[in-house]
Amino acid sequence: MTSKPAAPSNRQSSSAIPLVKPQCKIHPSATVADKAQLIGPHVIEIDEGAVIHPHAKIKAEYGNIAIGKGTIVSEKAIVGLSEESGEDTTLVVGEGVSIESGAIVEARKIGDHATLGINCRVGEGAVLGKWCKIAPLCEVGPNEVLDDYTVVFGEGRKGRRVDVVVRDRKEVREARLKGTEMERQLLRGIIVDMSLIS
């Protein structure tokens, strides 16, 4: 048995570019997973009770990000302004918003209690009213403005409607709020437990 020295490699080694850590203002009751990515030179504010899943990405590269009270940002979701947004811009995500897995949010504002479905996209500069719902895989175009209670379920104006049940029935809104609070409580326990074992 003989050992030969390894042949010289033509591969060049590369080092990863270090990520710029943002100034973060995270409320003590917020849950931010260890594997969540918070990057960029601008300020990221995460309000009380918010939950940021592992592998969610909050990008403060082109402006400040404000995540509202009780908002949930799921795994592989990306929240951040685009380069076209301009300096001194803040992306505001309202209270009780649910940003589901793979969603991309470059909007200027997301209203309270909105739901952004799996792999949906909310374009640069868009403004969503309260209780809006974007269905999975659907898109809100750049600078588009949606009124309160708008549901996006397809392309163009034909893929829009007003959710009159949520708008007109307080008990439905209260039931959704209760369900979202139960989800947040469950997630806090799971995310904390996962960070202890990984």
From TrEMBL:
InterPro entries: DCTN6 (IPR027777), Trimer_LpxA-like_sf (IPR011004). GO terms for biological process: mitotic spindle organization. One of its GO terms (molecular function) is dynein complex binding. It comes from the Eukaryota. GO terms for cellular component: dynactin complex. It comes from Saxophila tyrrhenica. Transmembrane segments: none annotated. Keywords: Cytoplasm, Cytoskeleton. Gene3D superfamilies: Hexapeptide repeat proteins. Signal peptide: none annotated. The lineage of its organism: Eukaryota, Fungi, Dikarya, Ascomycota, Pezizomycotina. It is found in: Cytoplasm, Cytoskeleton. PANTHER family: DYNACTIN 6 (PTHR13072), DYNACTIN SUBUNIT 6 (PTHR13072:SF0). Part of the dynactin complex that activates the molecular motor dynein for ultra-processive transport along microtubules. This is Dynactin subunit 6. Belongs to the dynactin subunits 5/6 family. Dynactin subunit 6 subfamily.
